[in-house]
Records
---
Amino acid sequence: MKPASQMSWEAFHALDPDMQSGLLQKDGHIFHVLYARQFERDRLEAMGLLATRIRKIAKTVDGMHFLRDQLFHKRAMLYFTQPSTRTFLSFYSACQILGMAVGEVRDKSMSSEFKGETPEDAVRSFSSYFDMIIMRSAIGGLAERMAWVFMNSDRPVPVINAGSGKDQHPTQALLDIYTLQRSFEDRGGIDGKTILFCGDLARGRTVRSLANLLTNYDDMRLIFSAPAALTIGNDILASLTKRNVPYEVSADFERFIPEADAIYMTRIQDEWDSVKGESQTVDTSIYAFEKRHLAVLKPDAVIMHPLPRRNEIDHAVDADPRAVYWRQMRNGMWIRAALIATIFNCAERINDYLP
Ligand code: CP
């Protein structure tokens, strides 16, 4: 296959994401991060171990100095033109942990896009000042387009997709896998577990990306529970079938709670409504985890949520040790630091720091 730098945008874009994966690497390690499917099991294991190393090293002052020395010569641009709390702040913190200086655009009205500059030109201009671009955009495919633009420019900086359109949120999937790895480390790992997804599965890019990554594990069972109007996309189900991952689709959430090893709750994503108020016409009242459900949940199961939440998890559930969503959020900082360290090729030095 031709390198991406010799490929038209149309040819690059038309490639299956599995085929694009090789083109998104540099010197054998990951460079651009666009899709969850770029991460295979070995890479997920390595990334989880590195995140745990960074977490342990960061516990001491000497360790923090060591980590800050790793990338003090690099700068990252955070271009977030869609709202975000966790992804923005965890990337910001991850960059700081590794010593990187950070710039940000969070509001298009404060950039030259307000004067009519295209998002493509706006993002391209960041590469004149920064060594990495971390971007969240409502425009599906913009991160992919920018990766291709940079591959064809004299400033080939890496692009990390921090959420694009309704489709992909690969780094959320990484932190979700890291949370599952940690939750099940004394139970034989992720293999053989039943994962129950609940909520707006049609427009939840976190669910789509995580479902992709779970195909890396053996003997999984995935259950997707949502009202008919918000059910999981056929493209995800087709990719599960292709990889021989058994799944069930059901409107009955409560029925599956006792069988789940992990429950992944999501909120209704009404920001994507094509007509204002459209989501309010869907009855979502039964797609909520209530305090009474704790009684039927397995003693060693976990309740996850990418957050933010609305009313799909009762606040009374927060105190239960099986509710791991706050820990899950913090895991995002460590796994994103591990990802950035991997992209800039300093994972080995960090792994060697502790005996
Ligand atoms: N999970 C997640 O993407 O949260 P934010 O939208 O707050 O970044």
Note: The two ends are 42 Å apart (CA to CA).
---
Amino acid sequence: MQSELFSIPKKQDTKHFLADNTCILPGFICDNATEIRDLLEDILLLSPPRYMNTPGGQRMSVALSSCGTLGWISDAKGYRYSSYDPDTHQPRPNMPPLFSSLAIKAAAEAGFRDFRPDACLINCYIPGSKMSLHQDKDEQDLTQPIVSVSLGLPAEFLWGGFIRGDAKQTLLLQHGDVLVWGGDDRLRFHGIKPLKPGWHPITGDCRINLTFRKAGG
Ligand code: MD3
Ligand code: FE
């Protein structure tokens, strides 16, 4: 479609702040989605997504992998980052330069100019997969932002406050959307409602979410 001819604003142009330190960049990676998907295929062959258990023994409904120097793991001993894949005992697949450059560019758009991601968590959702309300605080330097990239099927994202019981907003995260969270907003409770079934040309019947973090020191 030649949207330029009809001056329909591109989705990519509508960046906005949901809070002082929370920025949404709708469609920010749409032009790179196929290339990202192809790079992910290689990464997921080296380090297949797997269902980890919470320290309490509950199987998570999102399958997880990671690339970069650090990856996130959960088992009976707790939540933490590690340099090795717990199943293959291999180092994590490298973070492709395209991934880090897009994450750094997105963080800069949101006002975070010294983002140095060392971990890219790869969350794979199938219909019914959800992520319960939680905070992200396993990273060493909480002054570094988190950059999230959504691919494939849309998901309802729950965005809360600083206490579990605080009021929540529901936002739809769509294919290509990038969110940047920093400062105090980094500690907001958040979650993903059960994924609805569907089909997306880039990912098929699933949703993939990438989160870029500075996890180590
Ligand atoms: C808000 N992932 O991996 S990304 C996670 O879509 C996670 O898979 C969700 O929550 C997903 O930890 C949501 C958006 C996100 C990520 C980190 C945040 C939102 C955040 C940290 C603080 C506040
Ligand atoms: Fe999270």
Note: Helices lie at 33-46, 97-109.
